[in-house]
Amino acid sequence: MSIRLIVGLGNPGAEYEQTRHNAGFWFVDNLENGSSGVRWQKESKFSALVAKTKINGADVWLMKPQTFMNRSGLAVGAIARFFKIASDEILVVHDELDILPGNAKLKRSGSTGGHNGLKDIAAALGTQDFWRLRIGIGHPRSQNTKAPVIDYVLQRPRREDQDSIDDAIGRALQVVPMLCRGEFDKAMKELHTVR
User: Fold this and answer.
1) What domains are there in the chain, each with its CATH number?
2) I need a surface site. Which of 44, 111, 112, 183 has the fewest CB within 10 A?
3) How far apart are CA 160 and CA 98, in angstroms?
């Protein structure tokens, strides 16, 4: 078992590009920048932008659903069925309120933690048994703001938080080759080790 599909979650449209909820898009955009010859194509049958790349010599699909976040399952379910990608071969990258900026955590299956994108993907796949890369954006309470969660995730991070999020994305990118080799324990140990 190894990762064959990497899905970055976000909302389409210029008005959402720099918002916290688009951390998954930021990740796949950075992953793409490290790969040669990646060409995004709009695939209406998947309701997504998709690209194919090679990581460790293996074909890996990259995806940015073009539905809004709470309908991400439409895109993920469609591509998984079409290419016969098992749920445990999927890595979904998303923003995580319960992790501070500067941190990223890997986990397989478990609760969707109230994240509407994850809920919709789990419903579309018929299982919660897929990999998640959780990019910390912090919670409004931890950031000393009284903004409601929905407003907070749809706002641009403060400069220092953006720098911390970018650092976490950079560290997470380094473990992608391990995930695509099926070295999940090694990837988790590497990513979760405090430096």
Assistant:
1) 5-192 (3.40.50.1470)
2) 44
3) 18
In whole angstroms, what separates CA 41 from the centre of its chain?
A: 18
Q: 103-149: per-residue pLDDT in tens?
A: 999 999 988 888 999 999 999 999 999 999 999 999 998 878 888 99
Residue type, 111: S
The radius of gyration of the chain from alpha carbons, rounded to an integer in Å, stands at 15
Active site residues: 21
Number of Cβ atoms within 10 Å of the Cβ of 39: 9
116 is in an annotated binding site: yes
Residue 35 CB partners (closer than 8 Å, separation 6+): 53, 54, 55
Task: Tell me whether residue 70 is annotated as binding.
Answer: yes
pLDDT tens for residues 18-60? 999 999 999 999 986 655 567 899 999 999 999 999 888 889 9
Query: Quick one: DSSP state of residue 104?
Result: E
Q: Which residues pair with 55 in a beta bridge?
A: 58
Determine if residue 16 is labeled as part of a ligand binding site.
Answer: yes
Does pTM surpass 0.85?
yes
